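Now for our target.
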Amino acid sequence: MGSLQLQDFAAGWVGGAASVVVGHPLDMVKTRLQAGQGYGSTLNCVLTVYRNESMTGFFKGMSFPLASIAVYSSVVFGIFSNTQRLLSQLRNSDPAHGPTLTDVTLASMVAGAVSVGIGSPVDLVKIRLQMQTQPYIKANIKLNPTVPGFPMYRGPIHCFRTVLQKEGIAGVYRGAGAMLLRDVPGYCLYFIPYTFFCGWITPDGCLSPNPFSVWLAGGVAGAISWTTATPMDVVKSRLQADGVYLNKYKGTLDCILQSYQNEGFKVFFRGITVNAVRGFPVSSAMFLGYELSLKAMKRDQTETNP
């Protein structure tokens, strides 16, 4: 039983790594749209980044997410799977008994809450690295304290250390409240559609879903989850990008109020197209990586322990 629980963490790591490679370019565009200035449309943002920074601009800050999101996904999937399994066993003595809606919902909420502990500092570093080439514009005064070609942060470790020294632990966890409000309901709308949609399209008699079912169910779940999470994702991105130049926001509520007063209700849906489009391939890659590696590990286990 112990090794089976650890397999979920290992498979989550593989899924996380796959999702970063697929999703980072669109994540870069999403961050620039939500927290940057003067991009307008998604297409204009893509063209501007490509024109100014070439293809490498889309992969800016990827090394840190690749290392850390793999660990983050490992924790999310490991906690979700084990919590769901534990709840199913408490409810039914038969461990093979399928999970109920309550089991999946509670396991999603636990995974979402725990994930913020790891995910918040990771997202902060990623967003600071993505945003440091942006000029700060307020009242038509350009405040750009960094010399072009000499960004504020030299890399992820330097960025993390700088934030910790200047802003303390509170700075590292800046935007964690918004992330909690995004991820607890967000993971419910991630794992619930996946679990039931996957079950629905998997033919009766199959012990596990086929790769196409996983790809489709994972993609649909990702698109639903990311689209509905966009408003709190905008708030989180703004809070975390805020410290690159000046601390404009006092907290989550202040960020919501200032954003609404200055840019109206539509600001909370900025980047929704990118989130919906990005949600499908990122989540399908995540779930495919997870399910296929889990199946391979279980097959190896049965071959070594017949």
Notes: The two ends are 15 Å apart (CA to CA). The longest strand covers residues 136-138. The chain has nine helices and two strands. The chain has a mean pLDDT of 84.
